[in-house]
Amino acid sequence: MASKLSSSELVLNPDGSIYHCNIKPEELADTIILVGDQNRVSNVSKYFDAIETRSQKREIIVNTGILNQKRLTVISTGMGTDNIDIVLNELDALANIDLKKKEIKPIRKQLTFVRLGTSGAIQKDIPVDTIVASTYGLGFDGLMSFYANTESFYENPIAKEFIIQTKWNPKRALPYLAEGSEELLHLMTENSKVISGITATAIGFYGPQGRILRLNLDNESMNEQLTKFTYNNNRITNFEMETSAIYGLSHLMGHKALSLNTIVTNRYSGTFSKDPYSAIDSMIQFALEKLTKF
Ligand code: R1P
Ligand code: URA
């Protein structure tokens, strides 16, 4: 017999919904759009033909509905891989744990996660308003080091070569590499203007992405080292704050994941999009069109 999870590990609200995401299993679709910004949830769900359920707790807003007969959930994660740990574990629990019996279900359900985020390009040839699909998430966040069975992330030759080429400072978390779904990458990049590359997932927006306001940096050449990094035709295209954890956790849990980001800033040229909301809206419409045919 499966062992019961205790109330301190699988935390539920009094109505039986999962603690932070605040929804019950029947409120979750199998295809889930993850966005950082809570205002982006309605910017996605406004395109649904019907919204079945809505929920909010803290920065996590969830809308589930139907578009072209496809059931979709859109959920805000807030910023950073720490929030991704919460959201992905809870969404996986909704699908794969019997919340009433508090037991792992014998048959695993596979979910599909698509992040629709914003990001900064670190290559000269990727202008603002481009959509970038992440082949891999290169994590500087350290989240995956707390889980078992992550050897393939840390032993990946690209991650190892990255550490060598950039002389990565050992006082930082060890970079790891997690792969997105090839099937979803193909779906999004086939016959489209979407470009692909490795997404560096930073643990912050300023110092961890090489931004200098009033504080000096430990390594002012970091972004230049990232831009120059190349290994077997792989290069780092962009910086954001969630993809490595989405890919890493999805891999361990057996889900499919892809990260799409609208480039709102180009760090190489020092430019910012003149109309980021239109560019993000184009990405949303593009992704919904693709997902409803998936
Ligand atoms: C920083 O401005 C935030 O924007 C990016 C980063 O990953 C970080 O979360 O993504 P979202 O626009 O999806 O939040
Ligand atoms: N989000 C990030 O994390 N970095 C950027 O430069 C832009 C958006």
UniProtKB/TrEMBL annotation:
SUPFAM superfamilies: Purine and uridine phosphorylases. This is Uridine phosphorylase. It is an enzyme of class 2 (transferase). One of its GO terms (cellular component) is cytosol. Signal peptide: none annotated. It holds the Pfam family PNP_UDP_1. GO terms for biological process: purine nucleoside catabolic process. Residues 32-270 form the Nucleoside phosphorylase domain. GO terms for molecular function: purine-nucleoside phosphorylase activity; uridine phosphorylase activity. Gene3D superfamilies: Nucleoside phosphorylase domain. InterPro entries: Nucleoside_phosphorylase_d (IPR000845), Nucleoside_phosphorylase_sf (IPR035994). It catalyses: uridine + phosphate = alpha-D-ribose 1-phosphate + uracil. Its EC number is 2.4.2.3.
